[in-house]
Write a structure and sequence with these properties.
With 298 residues, the protein is of the alpha/beta class. It is built from 13 helices and eight strands. One of its GO terms (molecular function) is hydrolase activity. This is Alpha/beta fold hydrolase.
Length: 298
């Protein structure tokens, strides 16, 4: 049963669940056609992709999960909430659905999770779409380090469990550039993290942004397996969290890379520019399909 705070007009999708050892993981699987798999970041969930899915599901099969601890997925006490564990859950979903030739869409913390799969199974990933993200160690990144330590430190846990401050503050900060976003939409992000005591657990993801440098480095060392995959990068230049230097690193990394700049947008392009994103993604997939079609033989 869906929670009473969820607006079915905003999120008009059939809920599906994959039972994992750690609990039930929620996902949606909408439409038919070439497969687009979307991986959210923190503190978001599949809700962030709702407008893209509404637009794309008439021509594509759109799959988006909620990581354990987020959205409509279970929030177990004994789950590690580390990126490696989320990546394993994502791979379990991909194996369950037996998806091939996908376009992988990743954003924020979703890139390490989604690209971990791509690095191990590049034959299943036809193309990649990236939105304001990274996949390398953040141990020396001051912005992430300060935010991460605050969210999981004693003060952050107290505020979170007693006053419900830190999640609201984080969501509102990240959505700050989307000035026209209704409060009801903001609440979908805040309430999807569960009760205050559950939110403290899922915010372990924030700590792990800088706490698993070894795993990030392991991913980065395997990067050559995806360097030749055609990639579209959609980048909000007013992002307060993921800076423009990350974009420059991605541009140097991929051998075939197309970049679209959104000068007036921030971290959550899906909320600010859904129509444009859907068009860019659709056109990108169509162009890649044309390039891969066998030449007509006379």
């Amino acid at each position: 049963m869906k929670p009473d705070w969820l607006d079915p007009q905003e999120y008009p999708f059939e809920s599906k669940y994959l039972t994992l050892p750690c609990g039930k993981m929620h996902y949606i699987d909408e439409g038919e056609g070439p497969v687009i798999v979307m991986v959210h970041g923190t503190p978001a969930w599949s809700f962030i992709y709702r407008n893209l899915i509404k637009l794309l599901r008439t021509r594509y099969r759109c799959v988006a999960m909620d990581m354990i601890g987020f959205g409509l997925s279970d929030k177990p006490d004994d789950f590690s909430y580390k990126p490696r564990a989320h990546a394993a859950n994502f791979e379990a979903l991909m194996n369950h659905l037996q998806l091939k030739n996908i376009t992988l869409v990743v954003h924020d913390f979703g890139a390490p999770v989604g690209l971990a799969y791509a690095l191990d199974h590049p034959e299943n990933v036809r193309s990649i779409v990236m939105l304001n993200t990274w996949t390398w160690s953040l141990s020396k990144h001051n912005t992430f380090s300060k935010a991460s330590k605050y969210l999981v430190g004693p003060l952050g846990k107290f505020l979170h469990s007693k006053l419900n401050v830190s999640t609201d503050a984080l969501v509102n900060e990240l959505l700050g550039d989307a000035s026209n976003l209704p409060e009801s939409i903001r609440q979908h992000y805040i309430k999807a993290l569960g009760q205050p005591e559950q939110k403290v657990k899922s915010l372990a993801c924030a700590r792990e942004l800088v706490g698993v440098s070894k795993w990030y480095e392991e991913l980065w060392q395997k990067r050559k397996s995806i360097q030749d995959i055609p990639t579209l990068i959609l980048w909000g230049e007013r992002d307060k969290l993921v800076k423009i230097e990350a974009l420059q690193k991605w541009k140097r990394f991929f051998h075939e890379c197309y970049v679209i700049h959104f000068e007036e947008s921030g971290h959550f392009l899906q909320e600010e520019n859904a129509d444009e994103l859907a068009n860019y993604v659709s056109n990108f997939i169509k162009e890649e399909q044309k390039r891969n079609e066998p030449a007509y033989q006379l």
